[in-house]
Amino acid sequence: MDTVHTALKQGKLIAYPTESVWGIGCDAFNEQAVQHLLTLKNRPIEKGLIVLTANTHLIQPFLADLPNARRDEILASWESTQTQATTWLFPLPDHLPAPIPTWITGNHDSLAIRVIRHPIIAQICQELADDDNPYGFLVSTSCNPSTSPPATNLATAMDYFGDNDDVIFIKGDTLGYLSPSQIRCATSGRMIRI
Hints:
This protein has helices at about 1-10, 30-40, 60-65, 70-80, 100-105, 120-130, 155-160, and strands at about 15, 20-25, 50-55, 85-90, 110-115, 140, 165-170, 180-185, 190-194. It is α/β, with parallel strands linked by helices. It has a single domain, classed as DHBP synthase (Alpha-Beta Complex). It has a nine-stranded mixed sheet, sandwiched between helices. Strand 1 (about 15) and strand 2 form a beta hairpin.
């Protein structure tokens, strides 16, 4: 994984299995890498991006001000084995160890975060955590051009982006979840994307 970590810190992209489909992403705090990803996907920066992290310890500032019941619901959603992962949309806390860049949030004053259950990707996120990226955030957007369906395996991911020298492919399978992650509001629990 050292070579993956080094590549991400150098601004490379990775294509990787998630819980359900394949994702493509980069170090969330590397602006050049994020801009390259947005261009590759033909995705407007205004939409914002989902980020993955390895565990809840890395994102304590986002959880700290939530009521206990809401925090418990979020933690339970990330710990349970299910058929669909949950991404939570958090308001940006006033005081953070490192501010969240606008190239991740887009036009929003919130951040979509998921603790990834895939062990290979969780390890990559853990290794990303450092002074520049204290949360271990890895950008996660579906691995496909904007007009094509998300890749569900390595072969399709390589068909989409295999001719791009800046994309490293992480071998492995998805966890077999049936649908891409749902998105819910961390403060209200409201469903945003089913």
